[in-house]
């Protein structure tokens, strides 16, 4: 299934993630060379959840990222539009909710902080999704977006966008994933995603302030931070 076909019908994206849920965590760890744990830790540190705060982890998948966020004592809920992902993470002891990023089932200002990791690419309208995240965040609340981005060092960028996304990722997915074809879409979505400054502009367009970013892994991943206006 092509990226264009998935864009026309977002429900297909949910079904795609249902199809990869069973071995999703294992495949991600293999594809990232174990860096996925480091990215989760850095996301938690950037969001800086505090005891007693309410935190939304959107596109949480199997909730492995939510467990990481909860280590600092905040109340953290895992939300995802793939029921298969949530079922695959049923053994993780955090609250879970089925949720469409475009129509979140939460009240205005319900959360002190919100985050989305490697999921904004899969939202049909990312700016609308960012606005919806702002709606459910209290004034002065925090946003962190952890997402694949554009490597800053040209030789690595060429290697990453060519060999890694074009050959290594599909080969590993064929070996480990319960739905290898889905990773062709994921590789395409990474290539098509805006670079760090362009994503920062989208976040600001959605109404967030004090937008900044920090590169991880030579820019292959970036953390974007922002604050909801008071």
From TrEMBL:
InterPro entries: SAM-dependent_MTases_sf (IPR029063), UbiE/COQ5_MeTrFase (IPR004033), UbiE/COQ5_MeTrFase_CS (IPR023576). It catalyses: a 2-demethylmenaquinol + S-adenosyl-L-methionine = a menaquinol + S-adenosyl-L-homocysteine + H(+). The keyword S-adenosyl-L-methionine applies. Its EC number is 2.1.1.163. The keyword Methyltransferase applies. Pathway: Quinol/quinone metabolism; menaquinone biosynthesis; menaquinol from 1,4-dihydroxy-2-naphthoate: step 2/2. It comes from the Bacteria. One of its GO terms (biological process) is methylation. S-adenosyl-L-methionine binds at residues 62, 80, 100-101, 117. Keywords: Menaquinone biosynthesis, Methyltransferase, S-adenosyl-L-methionine, Transferase. It is an enzyme of class 2 (transferase). GO terms for molecular function: methyltransferase activity. Belongs to the class I-like SAM-binding methyltransferase superfamily. MenG/UbiE family. Methyltransferase required for the conversion of demethylmenaquinol (DMKH2) to menaquinol (MKH2). PANTHER family: 2-METHOXY-6-POLYPRENYL-1,4-BENZOQUINOL METHYLASE, MITOCHONDRIAL, METHYLTRANSFERASE. This is Demethylmenaquinone methyltransferase. It comes from Pseudonocardia kongjuensis. The gene is menG.
